[in-house]
## 1
Amino acid sequence: MNISQRFKSLINTKHSLKKIRRNIPDKILDPLKYALVFIGIVISSGTVQADNTEHCMGLNIDISKFSKEGSTTVFVDGEKGSDNIADYDGEQHALKTLHRAQCVVRKLLKSDEIVGNIHVKLASGMHYLNRTLILDKSDSGRNDNGTGNDQHVIYEAADPQNKPIISSDYQLKDWTKVDNSDINFDRFYVENAIGNVYVAQLPDGFQMKRILHRGDNRLAISSKSFAPVLPVNIQTTFEDIPKDRDMWATKFKQELYLNDNSVLKDSMFNDNGSLKNDLELAIYPRQKWMHSIVKINTISRNVAVDDLSIPTPAQKFFRLNNQDVNKEKIDRVSLIIPERYFDSGLTQSVIHPQDSVALLNSLEHLAKGQWALDDRNNRLYYWPNDGLKPGDNVISTPILTEFIRVGNEYSGDSDYQAVENIHFKNLKFTRGGRGYQEIDDAVSHSSFAIYNKDNAILRFNGAKNCTVDAIEIYNSGDNGIRLDQYSQNISIINSEIHDIGNTAIVVLGYGPGTTNVNKHNLIANNEIHHVGQLNKMGQAVVLGQTEGTRVMYNKIHHTPFNAISIVGLRFWVDVKQENIATGATDYTPEYRAVRLDELSSTHKTKVEAGQILKSYEFLNYIFTDNIEIAYNEIYAVTSDLGDSNAVYVHTSNGDINVHHNYIHDISNPEASTALRADNVQLGSKFNHNILSNLANAGGIVFSGQSEVINNYIINMDSRGRGVIGYYLKIHGGPWSNRSTVSRNFLYNSIEGKSDGQLFVTGLVVSNVSAIKDTYQQGDRGGLIKEKLFTVINKPLQNQPWNWEWESTKTLGTVKVSNNLYSSHYQLGEDTVTNADQFIEYLKNTQGIGQLRSDLWSRAAFSKKDGDTFEDATDYNFDTKTFILNPNSNAGALGIEQLSVTEMGIKSSLILLENFIPKVN
């Protein structure tokens, strides 16, 4: 019995195989959900009684009091309004809540006498939601199919200069200081905690959303960081992990090993070994690009083991090839089983080695400024960092994660009607809760986002022709806005989303299949910043299974991970998993998104049998297509995770057009590139972008059938990585690469060398198995096996790709011409002033590893095909305005002048008016 099997037997949690429920047809489920909801009854031609729902009971409205031709207004005042109005006339009174206003709007919409738009105007000040406001077909504006008589419902500020604030706070009062009478008194091990920690009793049945606020400040949950160990013995060795890389941590996808006695305390556990309260883990797994918060299922402490050891610190990140390595012998470990399986594996983080994992919500590790919840007794503990009693300031926790939902969830029926013509303008939303990726959730690429999840402040699902205009979402625990499943022609414009726990905007249609109903959405003229503050994989924008969506004229900054991701399904990852916590075998989170009943019989049979789908044919089920990312300013992104990018594209099925973006000042040396088309691509275009002042790995990576045309790549500096930086790189993979690389301006004004490597390297091609294995020093001292060499223009014929499941594909033809290389300073040891010297320099410069000398004839420069090297010492290229010098050869090469002033937020969106529904 190996280590993995031994620990599984300890927890004894085998269960029967779960039934898969996701394939029950929507047309069966949805009518049951909605058939009896919100039934309205017309009493007379003049008076309408409210819908038969709790928040509408006892309300009548007199239609004669409302405008018949022009717009109609319903007032809401969260502080001075009243819902106790039997006969609402819309003029003399203001309602108190949005739910009560919803009742009035529904009655107005039902009346044939009200033909104009309906404005729900919110007074300045606070408005509280105690349950999600669900706007369904009964709340939908009227669509008169092009006659110009559409009717819109607009939720907006009464005073746009003093925007109302919508929150779901529950204010906590009656705080008392913890003393020896408290049931958890003996759990506060931290010095000086007693006498400074306060406790509040939550109401029975109250489920805290794991967020606590003090005024506008989000307070930190208690946290104890630790570095897990990766055990090695005769049965479980690094030899069991694929030899090309250790990062997948194949054996350890739901097992976290710990030999640090300072983390787990006796007081955390009951006599039977169960936890006294729910603990969580914030995990940076071995992969650079992942982070997650997950519940703990089981902890087995101080387990005695035989022949167990861990690599010494110098070897923790290495792939070990033999058994005769120095190891640290350990006699006992603790095993932590997270609630769900991790595709990434749970070995120690490469770029966060000392805080790979944090134990959250432990009373034993409570520190100043933090809180922890005893959820078994509904007691909340808080240690103020300023000594003030919590009652001296408002302490609150959100009731809701999802504030407003617009739409009838798509049923798939031919007569389905989406909710439409609902708009939000000049509003603020704050203080929402946070959720989790649950065991049964389906996810997009690498868990960037969860499909159809109620984890955003504002969510559209089954909606079209709606706008979110000039709103602000801030200081909240999860996502900002979601456009789920059926979302069409939804415009998010002129808004700001910041200081939130996850991703600002998620646009995620149906899982892979044949249903394509997420289309033509717009994200424009917004400022998005300081996202991903709890889930470090949080991004500015995530797009998946959406067609014709545009992200334009936005200002995006301060993200821990990618700024913008455009993704499909990684259809070659594991199909099924065994969940150690439940004993069940089920689909992995990414394959759980696949709509099996919509696959061809061949593909369905393979997936049901647990076989990965390797063929390009699977792209028929991917609707990440015709995406435009343009005129955005993106900077200070990818700050926390590695292998991250400003704009990332993966598994797309059509044109992904990334153009006229200004991407600058990326300082994380573990980040990957500014622009990246990774893996399976059809038609990615990286054209007319300005990339400047980058300290990450590279400028542009591309694959498949890409265009890389007329980009400025300025000052690519990878000295912080200790490895070669590249301006352009071809990504390896099991396909023919027929990309075009032309008229790019590659410029270097950084004095000195990068560890002896070349700043302006041209194209780098990876994973070509014709070259002997070489090792690249990097990743904080780790060895990553790669096969790299620089190549330009000439194809490599009949070179097999080093992929297990595809070994017969070739590079194909990469067309490269008319690129301009320019530098102020010496390259390497040589002074280079012209093209001939540049060619000679490339031939004589040692690249990554010991490369065969004959390959340098295909160096990163081709004078024959119009590439030009330019000595830039005679003029200064302005790296602020990016104006090309008239003395440059750029014009002769066809390189177009780019204007940085066109990129970023604009004062108006005139160019996009036809895309945005017109609302008066």
## 2
Amino acid sequence: MSRAPWLAMLALTMSVHCQDAGALDRDRPFQDLVADRWSVEHGLPQVTVYAIAQDDGGYLWVGTQKGIARFDGHRFVAYGAEQGIGATPTNVAHAVRAADGTLWFLHDRGLLSYRDGVVTRHEDRLPGAGAVDLAVAPDGLLLATRDGLQRIVDGTRAEQVAGTPAIGSVVVDASGRTWLGAGAAILEQQGSRWVVHPLPATDGASLAVTALAAGPERLWVGTTNGLYAFDQREARFAPIEGTAGAAIAVVLATASGEVWAGGPDSLFRTHDGHRAVRIDTALLGASPWITALFEDRDFNLWVGTRTDGLMRLSDGWIDRKILLHADQPQVAWSVERAPDGSLLAGSERGVYRIASAAVTRIVPPGDLPNPVAYELAFDDRDRLWIGTRSGLARRAYPDGAVETLADFAGLQVNAIVHGSAGTSWFGTHDGLVIGDHDAFERVAIAPGTPANRVRGVLPEADGSLLLATEGGVRRWREGRVETPAWAAPVDQAFVTAVDRLAPDMLLVSTVDRGFGVVHGDALRMVADDPTLRRLTAWGARTTRGQVFLSSAEGIVTFPLEQLRRFAVEGKGALDWRVPASIDGNLRGSVRARCCNGGGRSRIAIDDYRVWLPTIESVIAIDLDDLDRAVETPVPHIESVASDDVRRDVLADRQPVVLSGDRRDLAVAYTAIAHRDPKGLRFFYRLDGFDADWVDAGVRREAFYTNLPAGRFTFRVRAESAARIGSAQDATIEVTVPPRWHERTGSRVGLLLLVLAGALLAALATVRWREKAYAMREARLRAEVEQRTMELAHANAELRDANRALAQESETDPLTGLPNRRWLLNHLGEWLRGADGATGEDDCALLLMFDLDRFKDINARHGHAAGDALLRQFGASLRQSAGPDGTVVRWGGEEFLLVQRGVPRAQSAARVVALWRAAQEHLHPAPDGTPIVLPSSVGYSLWPLARGATGVPWSVALEMADAAAWRVHAEARNGWGGLLLADGADPALLSGGIVGRLDALLRGGVLVWERIGAGARPPA
């Protein structure tokens, strides 16, 4: 191989990479990188990834203990006997790309090469188990072996390079020089001789070279005792600070100048070549062992591991993840911009100030009526108002004393809005509160109904207020409350917010009906798209012509003008995008445990970022990164199938000829976009057959049946989630030869035959007309009957599908237990039993289990183990519940157990038995150690008293939840109940207990039952 093409390829690669436009952001913390993982369950041939490379088409190739596989970001294609390469190669340890685009793989029996869709074995006269590394030099392939360096000629012959000892690694730098790792030294090629550079001596530690990587003017040397930089000009080693003592197995020098190094128990990242940051490998998996590192042409970092498969790390648009508390992530509920430009975050442990990435708690939980800072707002005096779950506080910002307002004692404050002239409005769980400086007046919206729980307040120009309530939208005007005519579509819905997007447009967010847009006197709900329809929406803000909608599933964006057109016309598709979703599975999204509801302050926007409260503290989405076009998908046609024969188009690009009788065609295609493969959308057409492009969505195969004779061109193009289309279409020619009767001569003869037949048919028409009419009538009658049967069958299938979808929506995907949706839809009917009968002294027992310190279990064993323990705990509760009980996954680590038909006199004993069963059940940890899951249990009874069926079961649920909260706060690993006091009127509780629990306890309506500080319950 000549030197010129090799150097030209390297120069081109360096020039492209050195643009550094897409390299991983050096300033972004490792935990903020987007991490995706693939393993055997996704099609990876084997869990250990030793080698990674990329071909000219953009496909990624991985080498494992069980062969090689091609990866397009969506699926793996393993290469073995089906691709004509014989037995599956084992222990594919290294992969390199030559100047001509050929990929070479080293395995334990020799070499494999890939070029133009074809994999070829090269095993004759090549070293077997002795080969340990592979590199590309200007004049051929180089193999590092236990017998020294060998050069591969034509992929079939190995020639020994004189003067080289047993070596363990080889690399070629930008100038074409070869470097070898041999024992405790590196060897530099200088013409025909080798210069030895011994590693610096260490105090008592054994030292050997394990990996090499070449960078500009420096060589990076991985050893059994850390990472070193070797200055080629001064021939001097320098240890990289922070890596001493670590066994380095693989080193990668990226195009941007970063260096990554990994090994059995470590991963390092260095920017300046002097100091390295040790990455917490727990972020990569349970116990990853780094075996391969690779940077693709789109600057994604790929990590191969011994135990956790393949991972990709890339920059997303999550600019920051602010941990409010260093010990562990905590739930954030609200965000608000302060007058000094800093950001305030309300959490479950008070209020924090975020400024220049420094986090300071400015209001501790003990200074608040309730530790949960649910809502934040500043007034025109720069006073910070803090709404909590059971009261309101305020303080002069930034360092005034915290003042608790007695008028709000026991009230959950959901929304705080300050107007001019000192007027303020507060949405609470017990109506609207209007304030004038220090005087407050409570306004009941609809006492005893969900509409009295006000979630949002929006002042209007005419002095009225739009109220978002748990029973729909209401308008308050001069002391009167009414329902706007346009709010009928959300009547009785749980409305979380009403936000003004523009002077003429509102957005209405709900929990159970998605969201809608108000223009003029019409509210139009976004209902066509199933993903948007199921959003639990919290609220919206507008910036840069985009609407950002915060929801329980993630953050969603829309062009403002598209929403306006939809609001005016009631139709038209929305080009929505999901920058971040809770699981990262929605098209175009990265994973972020977003987003939490709060009050008005559920989302904050400045000129550069969107700030959101989440269950893992606060995240910020970088608007510039979100707008930046980072990737153009490259489409490929992979295979075609006709007459049940499939052909690999990557290996054989010849036109397709459909010679069979059926003339059916199936085309499998894909596109390469490794940063967001899930976000790709495909369009295809068969020129000469399709009138327009077919929108295939995420589907990667096209089907045609009974094609006519002719010449066609199949085209496919792709579009990213950022609406970036592929630069050119992938195409393949398709020919369908005519059958004999479709040829010109055959058609002329057939025409003459048809004319003769028509003449004879005309002579017989009169005779057979009546018979034909009779036959036609019978046939039509039969067809009608057949269509009627088919329609009935289709309707039955549709009903079955709808039932299946309903069941899936009411099932918790982690534990398989019913979820809250099931509870809201069915619990009342279930409590009444199959026949609606209940014994006079019987009741239903409601127990809320709250697992204590479960976050510690996740931190110790990992989230996968935590999920497994949640499934086990739910299963054990379901077994304890028996045939007359049900268990609901309430959320997080909370479970609700309901048991009906319990004699009221035996209820306390039944609580004891169920709590003990949960305590005594041992759950295996990942290492086999049995774990006891301690829990705080609160219980209540329904009906609240004998014959008190007029009070809804939801009140008993609130009481059980309040009891569990008290046990968790005061005792942990205990149990307790909240019950109706003897002789108390149950009707006093018909409106629920939220916001007035303390008053009900003081008034003797409710009593606590056996609240213990962790003591075991009595026998």
